[in-house]
Design goal:
310 residues; alpha/beta; Aspartate Aminotransferase, domain 2; 7-stranded mixed beta sheet; globular
């Protein structure tokens, strides 16, 4: 027996990550490697967006590859409906399940979803594209694979990550045309994610406090769960046209988004009314690490004015 003086096994406690141009490219590459059988399908949460400029980072790869898919329900806060997921798995012919950590909030039911997937022989993929890679939080470590988006969290134009966990099969190297440029990879490796998370949480709490006396909106989350580093501050617009509010705020220079203002056509409003209700009302306010406390009043005033038609 030989006990080495220094570690030599590069598989121990080291994430197997590949840096690509976009998360969707890593997703497409992974699908090609793990799909089993032409009839096999992937099960998705019933809250998938689409835009005319960007398409759908989730549905487009499936369509391009001709992979069948179906949906499981999410609740009014986009949490996994475990009974719906279990029903979809019970139908059979499922090779994979996708779980999304919407707006950076981790899915509390993910461990149970993982157990359901294991029982059904399905691979669990975590979509962490809205997440900050916090040390010690195990973000992306529950599923068999995980996807991250660099450009949604850090200041660059592209960049995604495909992560393989535990004993999941090796999907092989990303094709050269899918690989990331040097900047996104360097930024992700060098980023002080703990400080970024602290700033985002502080911004979220400061802005939330200032929004309490704004009529016509409802906070999407009742409270920010411990350990969550939010991508943005989501609210529901109750008494105004969300699209008009969005346009007015953008015109005033506030970088709001609406995730997702348009759901993919396959998500039937009669089957998934909760998803469509969220989609009609959601507005996501900026609280990223570049936002300063002195900008909070301008965000609040722009929202208040937009809600009243100003």
């Amino acid at each position: 027996m030989t006990v080495e003086k220094e570690p030599i096994d590069r598989r121990n406690f080291i994430r197997d990550r590949q840096y690509g141009s976009r998360a969707r490219d890593g997703f497409r590459h992974l699908l090609c490697r793990i799909r089993s059988g032409a009839a096999a399908r992937i099960v998705l949460p019933a809250y998938i967006g689409h835009s005319p400029l960007e398409g759908s980072g989730i549905l487009d790869p499936l369509t391009e590859l001709g992979i069948p898919y179906s949906f499981y329900r999410v609740d009014e806060r986009l949490n996994i409906d475990l009974s719906s997921l279990e029903n979809e798995l019970a139908r059979g012919q499922v090779f994979s399940v996708l779980a999304i950590h919407y707006f950076g909030s981790l899915q509390a039911e993910l461990p149970e979803a993982k157990r359901l997937c294991e029982r059904a022989g399905a691979v669990l993929i975590e979509d962490c594209c809205h997440c900050v890679d916090l040390p010690g939080r195990g973000i992306g470590d529950v599923g068999d694979y995980a996807l991250f988006s660099i450009h949604k969290v850090l200041p660059c134009d592209d960049g995604g990550i495909l992560q393989r966990n535990l004993d999941a099969p090796d999907p092989g190297p990303l094709p050269p045309h899918f690989r990331a440029s040097a900047l996104p990879s360097r930024l992700w490796r060098d980023a002080a994610f703990d400080a970024i998370a602290e700033r985002r949480v502080d911004n979220y709490r400061r802005l939330s406090a200032k929004l309490r006396d704004v009529d016509g909106i409802v906070p999407f989350w009742e409270k920010l769960e411990e350990g969550t580093a939010p991508l943005n501050l989501p609210v529901l617009i109750e008494n105004a046209d969300r699209f008009e509010v969005y346009k007015r705020m953008r015109a005033r220079g506030v970088g709001v988004v609406a995730l997702y203002h348009t759901l993919v056509d396959a998500i039937d409003p009669e089957v998934f009314p909760t998803s469509h209700d969220i989609s009609r009302k959601i507005l996501n306010l900026p609280i990223h690490q570049d936002v300063g406390s002195d900008e909070m009043p301008s965000i609040v005033e722009a929202l208040r004015s937009a809600l009243t038609g100003g």
